[in-house]
Amino acid sequence: MSSTDGYARSPFNPFGGEARGRRTYTHYEILGVPRDASKAQIKAAFRGLAKKFHPDVLPGLEGTKFQKIVEAYRVLSDPLKRKAYDLEAADAEHRRIWPYST
Question: Contact, 37 vs 75, CB < 8 A?
Answer without folding.
Answer: no
